[in-house]
Design goal:
The chain is of the alpha/beta class. 38% of the residues lie in helices and 18% in strands.
Length: 369
Amino acid sequence: MYFVNGKNNLESSAMMDLNQMELAGSTARVAIVAELGRMNGQEGDDHSEGDWTGVRRYHIKKDRDTSRIASPVLQNLGRADMGSWKELVSFISWSKANFPARRYALVMWDHGNGWKPVDPANAHDFGDLKGFSLDDETGSEISTPQIAAALKAAGGVNFLMLDGCNMAMASVAYEVKDYAEALTASEETEPGVVVRYAQFLGLLNARPSMGAEELAVNTVRTYRDYFTAAAGDNEGAPATQSALRLSKMLPLRVKLDAWAAAARRAEPEVLARARAEARIFGEDPEYKDLYDFVGLVTAGTADAELKALGRDFMLFFKTELIIENWAQDKASHGLSVYVPEVYDPLYGGLAWARDGAWDDFAAFLAKGR
């Protein structure tokens, strides 16, 4: 199931990716369906294929012509709001009803910005704390809690891919942990064009019995293969992609809570160095690689208990949470976390913050700058 929101300046990339899907196409054992939205004259509008507008649902069929989408349109939804979580529920439910299967995979495709809004104008209250699927026509986005709400309402999936910038965050993965087995996402920004869906779907068609974790590994490896080829370019940023075992997010949070409690007594200069040197993503100094941050504190502190807790956390992270990780730099380990310069109280509305101790620790770090 592909939820492809091209109702913004990624429209031309959305059209390209639908054509990539057609290079693989559905089979007797794998049904590929997509909801595709297009812009209505906004800046960056793509005029291909007669410049049709609105939202359509497709059953993706095999086709070698990458200049046009040949798959049959099963539904025309007019001006449906693809920045609404209820539209996401509708698509998942429709897909399951019309193409029942033993296993379900969902790819959400669009702009992403971690837990923060893509458009800052959408952050005026927690209900509009957005982070994915910006619909330029309506101005709507889907928040991190709303992604989880949509998955819950639609009965969950086996595999979830958030194909957008900066979505491999602890707060995002924790929010959806009960509604999928495996998650693939990127800590870093992603380029507008990544040619991989034909390869990824081809692997699935060749082995339709693969489970969620194997599927997640293949998404990471096809992403890696694109960027290690001569044509791979992440527009100046080191490319990243990771696959996470979501059942491990709760025990990971418990271990991190214990570490964060001990880290409050760490040497101020050690915390300051970790804040300054930990890998950041998308030029946002508040999105830092979680493993890198904990590792810098663990290496720098003289506190024996804090060192032990840090090593225990890092071992669990590498051996239990991460299914597969690939990055063009060594400091990107698969999951980022919010380390604010000025604490944003909206962060406290996320399940990761409500259930655990990182919310208070993040505020503590901000005060200690």
